[in-house]
Design goal:
The complex is a heterodimer of chains A (392) and B (221).
Chain A: E1 6-11, H1 15-21, H2 38-41, H3 48-64, H4 76-79, H5 85-94, H6 106-113, H7 117-120, H8 130-146, E2 169-174, E3 180-185, E4 190-194, E5 200-204, E6 211-216, E7 222-227, E8 231-236, E9 242-247, E10 252-257, E11 262-263, E12 271-272, E13 278-282, H9 290-305, E14 318-322, E15 336-339, H10 340-343, E16 354-357, H11 360-369, E17 386-388
Parallel strand pairs in A: 13-14
Antiparallel strand pairs in A: 2-3, 3-4, 4-5, 6-7, 7-8, 8-9, 10-13, 11-12, 15-16, 16-17
Helix pairs in contact in A: 3-5
Chain B: H1 3-19, H2 25-33, H3 37-56, H4 68-79, E1 83-91, E2 96-102, E3 107-113, H5 116-119, H6 122-136, E4 146-152, E5 155-161, E6 165-167, H7 168-175, H8 180-199, H9 207-212, E7 215-220
Antiparallel strand pairs in B: 1-2, 2-3, 3-5, 4-5, 6-7
The chains are: A alpha+beta (392), B alpha+beta (221).
Chain lengths: 392, 221
C-alpha cells in the first residue's frame, strides 16, 4: 500500500466478541456492555441500527476526549466547544434510545458527519431536545457501565508520525482551537496535522506553486493559503475542499483571516455577520485590479459561508499591506499573522488590529521541521507571542 | 527426519527445558540441541513465548488443566510446521494472541488462540465457526481481514491480518480527543467499514455482542 496516513481498521467482527459476551454463561469474564445499545442490553432483537448506537458512543469519545459518563446529559458540543453543530447533532441522533429515531444506515450517518445535506437530510428531522434525549439514554448507559469491562479491546501500539513534506517547509499555522497544525511547503502542498495525535490528516494539493502563507479563520473552520504565483485559496478545514480561489498579481507573503463577526443592531436581536476579513500581504502595495479582486472575493465568500439571500455581508474587509512595514523584524517575512480576535478580544470590522507572532524558539522549530513534523515542539497557539500590532 | 519426528523432538526438548530452572533453560537447550541451530532457535523462541504468556496470563492454580500458556504453546508447537517467528502480543477476550510469520502464504499474521476453557464448550466453538464464516466475506480496506479458522489437535485458532498500529482507545487515552477533521476522517472510515458488513447482511442475533467489541486500530503504513 502506498498510503502513508493513519487509517482505521475495524477488528474482530463477531469473533472475540460473541465469546466475551457469553463469558457469563460459562463463568468467567463478564460481558462488555459499555458500548451496547439499549436494545442489546435488554435482549431485544438487534440490527444495524444497534451498531449505530455503539458507534455514537465511540464518536462521542473521539470528538470530546471523554467517555460519556453514565447519567450524563451533556451533549458533545458542551464538552468540546469547537465541535461543529452538525457533528453534535449527528452524535446525538446516533444515541437515540429508540432505533427508529437514529440514523437508519451507516451511509446516512456518514453523510451527516460530512455535512452532505443532499443525503443527510433524507432522514427524519430532529428536534433539538438534547437534554431529554441524553438523560434517557444515559440512564440506560449507566446500567451497562455497572456490569463492566471495556468494549473496545486494547492492543499494542507503535507509531512514528507519518512522513512530512518533500521540500522545505515555508510556513506553519496553528488553528485557533489549537488542534490542527497546517504546514505549507515549497513542494506546493499543504499538510494538515492533528496537533495532538501527530497524524497527518490530509494533504491539500490545489496550489500549483510553492505555498508562501497560511491563515486559519478565528473559528478554525477555514484555511486561507497563498502561493508564490499570487493565488489565494480558502479551503474548508473539515473536508479539505477548496471553496474560494482568488488570484493576486504578486507572490502572497502573508495572510490573515478573521472569524465571522458578531454585530449588534439597535432594536434588533444580535446577528451573526458572515463577514470574513482577509488580510493579504503582498510584495507591492498597489494592485490595479483591486476593485475586481474585491468583488470576486465578496461573491465567493457568499458561496463559502452559505449565506441566505438578503443577508449580505455588511462589510467586506480586504487589507493589503506592504511587507516592508515589517522589515523591522529580523525575519524575512512575518510567518505567523493572526487577526487580533483570535489572540485577544472580539474582532470588529473597524479595528483592523493585526497580531504578528514571532518567537525565537518557535522559529528554530520551524527550521527543524523541514522534512518532518515530528520535530515540532510547540503544539499550541499559546506559543505565538504578539510582538506588534498596527492599524492597517 | 520426517516433519513428525522433528515436531516430536521440538516438543520433547521444550518440555524438558521447561522442567529446568528458568536461568538454566538456555544452556540446557544449547547443549541438548548439539549444534542443531534450527532446533535451538525454535525451542528458544517457544520458551520466550511461553514466558511472555505466563507473565501476562498467570496460571489460575487449578491443577487439573494445564495453564493457558502451556496450552497455547502446545498449540504453537503443533503449528510450527507452518508458522515461525512466533511472538506473544496480547490477551484478548477469547485467549492469547500471537504474531507469527505464515510460511504458506508468506505473510505476517495475527493468530488468536481459543482459551482452553472456551474450546471445551461445543456451543461456543460452533458459534465461532459461524461467525468466522461470515467475517470471511467482509473484504474492506478498513476491516481487519480474516484468513481462516484452523483446527489443530482439537484446538481452535483464527488467523487474521496482522495490523501494526494502536487501538483508537489507546490513542484517545493519550490525547483526549482529536481535531475535528481528523475525527471526521476516522469516523467516516468506521462508517464505511461497518457499512460494508451491513451490506453483506452481517447482522443477526449476535451482532449485539460483536458490536460491543468493536475494536478499532489506527494504522500508519
Amino acid at each position: 500500500m502506498l498510503d502513508r496516513e493513519g487509517h482505521i481498521k475495524v477488528m474482530d467482527f463477531g469473533i472475540a466478541c460473541s465469546l466475551q459476551a457469553t463469558g457469563d454463561q460459562i463463568g468467567g469474564n463478564p460481558g462488555t456492555p459499555l458500548y451496547m445499545s439499549p436494545e442489546q442490553r435488554d435482549g431485544r432483537p438487534v440490527e444495524p441500527r444497534s451498531d449505530i448506537y455503539s458507534l455514537g458512543l465511540v464518536l462521542y469519545e473521539l470528538f470530546t476526549g471523554v467517555r460519556r459518563e453514565p447519567g450524563s446529559t451533556i451533549p458533545p458540543a458542551a464538552v468540546n466547544r469547537y465541535l461543529p453543530a452538525h457533528i453534535d447533532d449527528a452524535i446525538g441522533r446516533c444515541l437515540e434510545p429508540s432505533p427508529a429515531d437514529r440514523f437508519q444506515s451507516m451511509a446516512e450517518l456518514k453523510a451527516a458527519l460530512a455535512n452532505d445535506q443532499a443525503v443527510g437530510r433524507t432522514g427524519q428531522a430532529r428536534t433539538g431536545v438534547t437534554g431529554r434525549r441524553f438523560s434517557t439514554s444515559a440512564r440506560l448507559a449507566a446500567l451497562c457501565v455497572l456490569s463492566g469491562v471495556l468494549g473496545l479491546i486494547a492492543y499494542l501500539l507503535t507509531r512514528p508520525p507519518a512522513r512530512g513534506h518533500e521540500d522545505k517547509v515555508n510556513v506553519l499555522a496553528f488553528s485557533p482551537d489549537g488542534r490542527i497544525l497546517a504546514s505549507g511547503s515549497e513542494d506546493k502542498t499543504i499538510i494538515l496535522w492533528d496537533a495532538t495525535t501527530r497524524h497527518r490528516i490530509r494533504t491539500l494539493t490545489d496550489h500549483v506553486r510553492a505555498i508562501t502563507s497560511l491563515a486559519f479563520s478565528g473559528d478554525s473552520r477555514w484555511l486561507a493559503s497563498g502561493s508564490s504565483n499570487g493565488s489565494i485559496e480558502v479551503a474548508d478545514v473539515a473536508t479539505g475542499r477548496v471553496r474560494t480561489t482568488l488570484s493576486d498579481t504578486k507572490e502572497i507573503q502573508a495572510l490573515a483571516l478573521s472569524p465571522p463577526v458578531t454585530h449588534r443592531f439597535p432594536g434588533r436581536a444580535q446577528k451573526i455577520d458572515t463577514t470574513l476579513a482577509l488580510y493579504v500581504f503582498a510584495q507591492d502595495v498597489f494592485n490595479s485590479d483591486l476593485p475586481q479582486f474585491l468583488e470576486r472575493f465578496r461573491a465567493s465568500l457568499e458561496d463559502t459561508v452559505g449565506m441566505e439571500s438578503g443577508e449580505q455581508p455588511s462589510q467586506l474587509l480586504y487589507h493589503r499591506c506592504d511587507v516592508a512595514s515589517f522589515r523591522e523584524f529580523d525575519y524575512p517575512v512575518p510567518f505567523c499573522l493572526q487577526p487580533m480576535a483570535s489572540l485577544r478580544g472580539p474582532f470588529l470590522p473597524d479595528t483592523n488590529g493585526i497580531g504578528v507572532g514571532v518567537l525565537d524558539a518557535f522559529d528554530r522549530n520551524i527550521r527543524a521541521v523541514r522534512g518532518a513534523y515530528s520535530k515540532v515542539k510547540h503544539t499550541g497557539p499559546t506559543s505565538v507571542v504578539v510582538a506588534m500590532h498596527r492599524s492597517a | 527426519m520426517t516433519p513428525r519426528e522433528r515436531k516430536a523432538q521440538t516438543t520433547t526438548l521444550f518440555h524438558e527445558a521447561l522442567a529446568k530452572p528458568a536461568e538454566r533453560r538456555l544452556d540446557y537447550i544449547r547443549e541438548a540441541s548439539a549444534g542443531d541451530a534450527k532446533l535451538f532457535d525454535k525451542v528458544r523462541e517457544l520458551l520466550e513465548a511461553y514466558v511472555e504468556v505466563e507473565t501476562a496470563v498467570p496460571s489460575d492454580g487449578s491443577d487439573d488443566s494445564p495453564s493457558v500458556a502451556l496450552q497455547s504453546i502446545d498449540t504453537l508447537i503443533d503449528l510450527s510446521d507452518r508458522y515461525e517467528e512466533i511472538k506473544f502480543i496480547g490477551e484478548g477476550g477469547m485467549g492469547v494472541v500471537y504474531r507469527a510469520y505464515d510460511r504458506e502464504i508468506g505473510k505476517i499474521v495475527a493468530l488468536k488462540t481459543l482459551h482452553p476453557r472456551l474450546a471445551a464448550d461445543s456451543r461456543i466453538v460452533e458459534r465461532l465457526r459461524n461467525e468466522t464464516r461470515l467475517a470471511l466475506d467482509i473484504t474492506h480496506r478498513n476491516v481487519c481481514r480474516i484468513y481462516g479458522l484452523e483446527r489443530i489437535n482439537g484446538r481452535l485458532l483464527i488467523a487474521m491480518e496482522y495490523v501494526d498500529g494502536e487501538t483508537l482507545r489507546s490513542v484517545l487515552d493519550r490525547v483526549r480527543g482529536v481535531s475535528v477533521p481528523q475525527g471526521l476522517v476516522w469516523a467516516s472510515e468506521i462508517c464505511e467499514a461497518i457499512g460494508a458488513a451491513h451490506e453483506k447482511k452481517i447482522v443477526h442475533r449476535d451482532l449485539s455482542r460483536r458490536t460491543s467489541c468493536l475494536t478499532v486500530k489506527v494504522i500508519s503504513k
